[in-house]
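Before any further analysis, we paired sequence with structure tokens, yielding the entry below:
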Amino acid sequence: MKKILLVEGNLREENQSFTDGGIKTHTESLKDSISFFTKTLELDVVNPSSDKNLSEVTEDLTKYDGMIWGGSSLNIYNDTVEIRRQLDFMRECQKKIKNILAICWGLQVAVTVAGGVVKRCNKGAHRGIAHNVKINKNGLSHPLYKNKNETFNTPAFNFDEVSTLPNNSTLLSSNEINNVMGINFKNGVSDIWGIQYHPEITYDKMITLIHFRKDRLLNNKAFTDEDEINSHVKMIAEENKITNKNNRMKELENWLNKII
């Protein structure tokens, strides 16, 4: 049976707040989405910010056929012990795991380790949804986007962006907020497919996250007031009505097909 390593990017405290609020962690959501396509994979989970057995996991990384590194509320440019642990772990993964799907925060960690730069986005943020992601010429011929609509909307939640790509990267998709929405690059032994959005997370969960993070979002000026939040949530709910689950998760399906 093929083995996949799932990396939890959020701190343990954030995940506990999710659990206390009745919200699945990002890893739990990812497991659900993977099971929609296949139940033939053996899945291990690691949290490099807090797991005490991280050195044991690091020593045994070559046993994995692939790795999916998911989202987080962290910012890569903040110099904390927990973020440094994640960067160090990604560095080891890129030496030992051939196939990596890097989602949102995972993309930012992977890019930083490979010599790229991530900064605060100067064009705004994706608050539960990213509109009009455009697959470019390179992306249209890349297996990441096989059978994906050339322009699409997608669940997304990020305030930061990749501003400088690693060497030898191929840009695959963009939108008005983030020039880098999909990329492919190699570093060490790893072939990394990176996306700055969340095909594995439902719009329903994004709406829940907006309400859950309401005070935080108002404090950091992501929304001006509760009326704007309510209007924004209604817009996402309308998008949810017309979204096809298979199409939303096509990138995840395509990467899994590479592994299986």
In short: Residues 3-259 form a domain with the Rossmann fold fold (CATH 3.40.50.880). The chain has one domain: 3-259. The mean pLDDT is 97. Residues 229 and 241 are 19 Å apart (CA to CA).
